[in-house]
Amino acid sequence: MPETEVKATISKSTGLPRKRFYRARAHSNPLSDSHFPVPISPSQFDYSLHYPQIFPSSDQADGSRKIQFADIGCGFGGLLISLSTLFPETLMIGMELRDKVTEYVKERILSLRVANPGQYQNVSVVRTNSMKYIPNYFEKAQLTKMFFLFPDPHFKEKNHRRRVISPFLLDEYAYVLKAGGIIYTITDVEELGDWMKSCLENHPMFEALTEKELEADPVVKLLSSATEEGQKVARNGGQTFQAVFRRIVPSDKTS
Amino acid sequence: MEEAEAEAEVESNRDNVEVAPALIAVHPEQISVAVAVGPDLRVFDLLAGSAASLVDECGAPFHKDPIRAIRFGSRGKLFVSAGDDKTVKIWSTESWRCVCTVSSEKRVSAVAISEDGCHVCFADKFGVVWVVDVAGSHGHVTLGDRKPTPLLSHYCSIIPSLEFSPDGRFILSADRDSKIRVTNFPKKPLNGAHEIQSFCLGHTEFVSCLAFVHARECPQGLLVSGSGDSTVRLWDISSGALLDTCEVAAKAGLLESNGEAEEHGHAVTDLCTTISGLLIAVAIQSLQGIVLLSCDVSAQTLSVSKVVSIAGEAFVPTCLGFSPAEGKLWMVTGVSSLPACNYPPLARVRVISAIDAEQEPVVLGDDEIPGGEKLLETLQGSASVDESAFLAAAEAVKTAMRNLLIKKQYPADNRESRKKTRNDRKLKM
What we know:
Chain A: One of its GO terms (cellular component) is nucleus. Chain A: It catalyses: guanosine(46) in tRNA + S-adenosyl-L-methionine = N(7)-methylguanosine(46) in tRNA + S-adenosyl-L-homocysteine. Chain A: GO terms for molecular function: tRNA (guanine(46)-N7)-methyltransferase activity; tRNA binding. The complex is a heterodimer of chains A (about 260) and B (about 425). Chain A has one domain (about 45-245): Rossmann fold (3-Layer(aba) Sandwich), CATH 3.40.50.150. Chain A is built from nine helices and seven strands; from the N terminus they run H-E-H-E-H-E-H-E-H-E-H-E-H-H-H-E. Chain A has helices at about 45-50, 80-85, 100-115, 130-135, 165-175, 190-200, 210-215, 220-225, 230-235; strands at about 65-70, 90-95, 125, 145-150, 175-185, 205-210, 240-245. In chain A, strand 1, helix 2 (about 80-85) and strand 2 form a beta-alpha-beta unit. The longest helix of chain A has 17 residues, at about 100-115. Chain A is globular and about 45 Å long. Chain A starts with about 45 loop residues before the first helix and ends in an 8-residue tail after the last strand. Chain B is mostly beta strands and about 425 residues long. Chain B has a domain at about 55-200: Methylamine Dehydrogenase, Chain H, CATH 2.130.10.10. Helix content of chain B is about 15%, strand content about 40%. Chain B contains seven helices and 29 strands. At the A-B interface, helix 4 and helix 5 of A face strand 13, strand 16 and strand 17 of B.
């Protein structure tokens, strides 16, 4: 790998990182032990590292303010950046498996924080495998929103079990989501869209939002427009398939 | 996962056959003792004073590959065995007939029986826990083949231990990624167990074993877990809170003697709760004997009570079992098969009695154990064990436990030659 100075990878005009230096394949092997550090438990997650202005020292994290939005597979961070100003009081985080892409998002957030004092302090990114370690980052019923935008379709049937939305993983997402919390999914692959929708429909702890509720939610429009992936789909005139569900308390607790 | 199969392939290619550690299980009323070594299942009936003859007309008879998990149901009516041949066999303990055979897609790493004896759960190497309905199976009634349904899953992680909480409300699954998941066990488990109660997070290495301390003040029980990080931890499963950590290897003085301990050399390999659970027997990879921990239920702490060494032989227990009826701790060491040796699958059984807070534990001699020589002959394969075979087995046990619990690290040098078996590479060649 060529030694590139950090400064050259940031555009001189906008102060933002240039994607050219953070190119990565779309796919990453979630099973390879990349040896990134994982918090032993949610209480070990270092808030002062990610949100230094809000938590000036690591002692300050008294548990009163916690992350509420998580973008799983955040890619280049488009959604998070839009959400950051839309919900300035909410702490949010992106989770991404690819090393270079995570670095890009980090640089992007840092540059935005410098260029816009006081803003973008509530958003951060972490490099991790969210299919294995979500319970290490978030406590029970901590999140109010979870995002799964354009996840890896894993087309082959034998790889369907590796999809980030699956009947099993929904148990874990239901665990970290508060009752009433919302899970947003979108894809441009129709088969995957059907799959995600049916997984959610069949899971006892999720119910679909109504049309009215979808219209009223300002976040729904961002799903297809805010991310680089979404913009690419729009440019190519592709169709998107979304499934937005609410985490509920199963009414029949005894079954 | 293909990983586990690839692991086994790589190992056999290198003439290094994967060895399975010997297992032991004791009937809750010490009516019988079972030992599994490799594919052999050996049961001794203590009441009759003779070996139990197993009858299996259910699917493919007996196990063809090493057995990886055995246990008795808490009510003593059922016994389950499962392993590398991808079958789970459910036996009636009255007749020792196999009443049900369940096929798994992948090799099985752990089994558990629900408290009411109606369901059997098993974990496969993909990290999926399956459940099968066995209500109505006992005595001579044969259920035949049953299809399992998925219950829950730990994504791509091997589950070495499955346990039900004593009140039957929860099923616990521990994995190699240091996590313990506590899930509500629903009334209709065939639809899946979706409601996670808590995660017990705190171990820094794989979690190898789980057991419950039964306490009157705490009907759902306190959980104890053993791990590759050489600690035993105490948990409150409703909240997932870590109550206490006991550095067993350090406290038992193991770390001082071994200056350059190999990684995971002091992993906790098995643990077993005893007398109303207040004493916990712990087996550590490097210890020739066991450590007894005592649990203070009101203070919610663990402390080392005694270290019991087995003198006279290189006995590192691979599995523990306790009989509450007689206060005896049963231990076994052994392996399925010894590579490059012609020794048959070897097992050695020892018993410690007087497991008590007041008394001194006594390691029983071969003539003092319940069932005596006949039991040893049945469970060990022979009454006395050849010294050299035993030493070879002790070495193989070390390897077995390491391979079982730790994710294999492939060296970088022959990566290209290993990739030759990949489908997308094959076309290029």
